[in-house]
């Protein structure tokens, strides 16, 4: 019997709860797909938390990142979802990446980066171009701090330029997007299970 893995999805929408969010929808779809591979998951909407600017584990003065950080470190798979604004990932996504920068200096008892053996996948949404550009930024940053990126781990949807249809307003998930969700989830679960069974070597 395969062991149960865990996932944390971070939705980087600019909309505080309870507003509807396309980023939340895609994050939940990815978590649902992961659940078919014995991965239990949870989602947080980053904008609902007081994540202070900075690159330390704890910026003090009411900073709520430390509690989120514990959940990030506990998860085998990180699902990182962001909308596209002006061709870029959201400012909320950038804040999360900046706080994750602190993990560059964190190591485990074998001297390895603390996020080794963890897997990350990405979701990008928007009504303008930029999905490949944003995925490249996310994957480079997440790889830098120790995450491993599975094959075909980026899921994106870009609506028609200069139009107002959001992903959450579609009558059904486009077939290509649905297929990409399944592929990313399947490959992430497979890779995370392999790394759990055979971790990266000590430094």
TrEMBL record:
Entry-linked Gene3D superfamilies: 3.40.50.360
Family annotation (InterPro entries): Flavoprotein-like_sf, FMN_Rdtase-like_dom
Residue ranges annotated for the NADPH-dependent FMN reductase-like domain, each copy included: 8-155
Name the UniProt record assigns to this protein: NAD(P)H-dependent oxidoreductase
Organism: Microbacterium sufflavum
